[in-house]
Design a protein that fits this description.
The protein has 12 helices and 10 strands. By secondary structure, the protein is α/β, with parallel strands linked by helices. The protein has one domain. Strand 2, helix 6 and strand 3 form a beta-alpha-beta unit. Helix 6 runs parallel beside helix 7.
């Protein structure tokens, strides 16, 4: 019989071959030697996309012996999408209370008038990275909510965040990477200028729906000139099935900041297509990548966040 491959090589092969949940479940049963490692790979980053899926996940997790300890030990990243009830969400966050990277792209409106239950649950987490795309009430400034104080990466998809000169974001001294929404005619330039004053920021990204040439004129008019600024598409890009790409957009923005500003654009930006193409390497379908579009052209959503885009 041929000699068995070293465990490290087996793990590398399985990691390269595992791109979705179905394949992960199959590879989990390859051998008893790789089972513990594959299990850690599957549970380290979790993506759940609705109430039913979250409840199934919780039910399965509770079947394990010492399931609380297992969740605390293994689950480090969560990305939650769609409609999830308040009680279900709080139960999940309470169980997975060692999560350091969290994405909430939720359609639920249960926190729109009272966000305190969610803020309380988030405060209990050792979060370093947070993506927040949902309706949630924040009657106090973001600078007074504990969950924000220890974050290094924050992507907050709220088109009202920069409406007032004092958004509170400029006081978050631990932040190194910040992304928020910039709406021309609505966002206060003073709020943007105050963000630039945070010397710890390495990346300052703005999600925009306006044409980039107009955003460029807005920045020049108000002397908002900073090499850390990167423009992003207005729509959030979701992680891959097994949580791959949880920090990918930040990594792409970091690459942009290292480059010289193109003379024909006079700003740095990432188009939706370039982000989708970067995520394509995690898909189980190795088809052709989408052609690159000029990110200075406004892109409009057709049906939903996963649909193709068309030029406006």
């Amino acid at each position: 019989m041929p000699p068995e491959l070293p465990l490290e090589i087996q793990q590398t092969i399985l990691a390269l071959a595992t791109r979705d949940r179905h394949t992960a479940a199959e590879n989990l049963r390859v051998s008893t030697r790789t089972y513990p490692w594959m299990e850690r790979l599957m549970y380290k980053k979790i993506v759940l996309d609705d109430e039913h899926t979250v409840k199934k996940f919780l039910d399965c997790l509770r079947l394990r012996p010492m399931h609380v300890q297992f969740a605390q030990q293994h689950i480090r990243s969560l990305f939650l999408v769609g409609s999830i009830q308040k009680s279900t969400l709080i139960k999940l966050l309470s169980l997975c209370n060692r999560v350091t990277c969290l994405g909430l792209a939720l359609s639920t409106t249960e926190f729109a008038t009272d966000g305190s239950p969610l803020w309380l649950a988030l405060d209990a987490l050792p979060l370093k990275s947070l993506v927040l795309d949902m309706e949630i009430d924040s009657t106090s400034s973001t600078s007074t909510i504990n969950v924000f104080k220890n974050l290094t990466h924050l992507d907050i998809c709220n088109d009202r965040m920069l409406d007032k000169p004092n958004a509170g974001l400029e006081a978050l001294s631990a932040l190194t990477h910040l992304c928020t929404v910039l709406i021309l005619g609505k966002s206060d330039p003073v709020a943007v200028i105050r963000l630039i004053g945070n010397a710890r920021l390495q990346i300052l990204a703005f999600r925009v729906r306006d044409p980039h040439n107009r955003v460029e004129r807005f920045m020049r008019k108000h002397e908002i000139l900073d090499r850390r600024i990167v423009l992003l598409p207005i729509d959030l890009t979701y992680w891959a099935q097994l949580g791959q790409g949880d920090m990918l957009v930040w990594e792409l923005a970091e690459e942009q900041v290292k480059l010289s500003i193109p003379e024909n654009k006079r700003h740095r930006c990432l188009s939706r297509t370039s982000i989708e193409n970067a995520y394509a390497k995690y898909d189980d379908d190795d088809g052709d990548q989408n052609p690159e579009y000029d990110c200075t052209v406004t892109m409009a959503r057709t049906k939903g966040p996963h649909n193709d885009m068309h030029l406006r």
